[in-house]
Amino acid sequence: MVEKEPPSLKPLIYDLDYTDLENLVRDWQQPSFRARQIWEGLYQTYWRNPEEFTNLPLSLRQRLADSFRFISLEPIQILHSSDRETIKTLFQLPDGRAIEAVLMKYEKRRTLCISTQSGCAMGCVFCATGQMGFKRNLTSGEIVEQVIYYANLLRREGESVTNIVLMGMGEPFHNYDATMAAIDRLNHPLGMNLGARRFTISTVGLVPMIRRFAAEQRQINLAISLHAADDELRTSMLPVNKKYPLSELMAACRDYVAQTHRRLTFEWALIQNVNDSVETARKLARLLEGLLCHVNVIPLNPTQKYAGKGSTRERALAFKAELERHGVPCTIRIRRGIDIQAGCGQLAIQQAQNSPSNPLMI
Ligand code: SAH
Ligand code: SF4
User: Fold this and answer.
1) pTM, whole model, 2 decimals?
2) Residue 148 in 3-state DSSP?
3) Best mutation site among 114, 116, 124 for ligand 2 pocket (most ligand atoms within 8 Å of CB)
């Protein structure tokens, strides 16, 4: 992919928080209510073009257009799953990088799975994003814009976004500040006003960030990608486990629950004959003993560079039954969007896969 280094790229409007906008309006010697009007245009009606802000004087519309970019994500490929319930969009960023975001329609839910980075530095062996390496962090505005894009589409169908999972490309806690700023922006009461409880962040287990997140006492749901109950197996699948072994990770998880009284979710990609035995389930139950938590099991989705296979339904059910026998609640998640490579861990940009990836950066 060609790097188009944009020499005079205007700032992205979605990178502004409400206070930035208030300051801007003041600097431009506009009445303060203009900030609110612009914010509502961006985050309630999802206008994507300054010309649509017809409630503003023409001169202000013009000034906004001259000063900001309103679009940084160019949809270059849109795929619908065969059941039409999952839509995956590949977006190109102004520097030529690319990301993906997925909309999942399930009963009344309209859940978005969005990216926080282009690629990922964590190198989990079974994950297509990990296999493509790290490209760059997204800005908060680029994270926000993925939501606005879909909110705008849904609005035309009389629908709206109900849930957001930060489980697309990248490790959200490796881009902590931008991720939290994006959530705050989407959560803002004068704008989209999407409650913190509607967000779920999934992390591979960056211990210092789990601790920081716990201290911030946010209402956002937290999921930890565990996948193994002993260090040897976990390190072979998730290289980050060398840096933050299970003892440290589990201590941070226990402290999180103690501090926040919130239930943690553990993600477990079930891989046939690797981490799906009844003995492994027992080991996992011991690890989670007494912890306010829930295990989400998902049979591994196929990716190009990993030979492991998703477990059979029988093995998944036996794994779940063993956990529950030990008092650990467990859900087997249905695979979604597999036919368009939109399932967990399947997001990768084909063209980018050939370029050299950066080393693990934590
Ligand atoms: N980086 C974060 C969030 C993005 S990955 C994290 O790792 O938690 C979202 C989830 O998909 C994680 O639980 C991840 O372990 C899981 N995943 C990755 N590859 C997968 C695959 N091939 N099949 C099923 N789940 C996978
Ligand atoms: Fe990154 Fe998560 Fe994929 Fe691991 S599973 S490589 S942390 S996106």
Assistant:
1) 0.94
2) helix
3) 124
